[in-house]
Amino acid sequence: MSESDDVRVQNGGDHGGTSPTNDVRNDSSDSETETADRQVYVTRGLVDVLLEMAEAAEPNDVNVVLAPTPAGEFDADLGIDPETPVLTHFYMSEAGGSVSAVFGMDLGTPAGRGRARFLTHPQGPFELTERDDLAAVVLLAVPPWEDETFGAFDRAGRTLELTILDAEPPTEELA
Asked: Domain-by-domain residue ranges, the chain?
């Protein structure tokens, strides 16, 4: 896997607080660069699927591994650096579950992937807790399952700037 598979937070900084800041970008051709200190990009399609999964699983938690696609691999110009990771996919936690249960190894996530997670707290709070599985970037949702209750955090629980891109990831084919 290449370095671009990493989920990175651009330009350090701390916004603090526990409320998300979502910049929903509906025009994927917008070339204006984001100036936020800590930025996470995710596709609208992934957000919609994750929120649907959260609603369907309620009152149970959802905990899935997320994977990025470099912005330069999209057909459309996203207006961000081509190496910038955009969260586009998820891996079901059930894959490799038997081996994981016995040996403690996660075989459901390809090597070099999964430096981001999506978690839900159906009963709240809208912040990371000591019980959460952490990653470099954690997307968190609480009811009602909508953009306003969907946010990004780093592993220390600091709020990250979240930009939802209205863009389709490149089509992948099985070899």
From this structure: 3-164
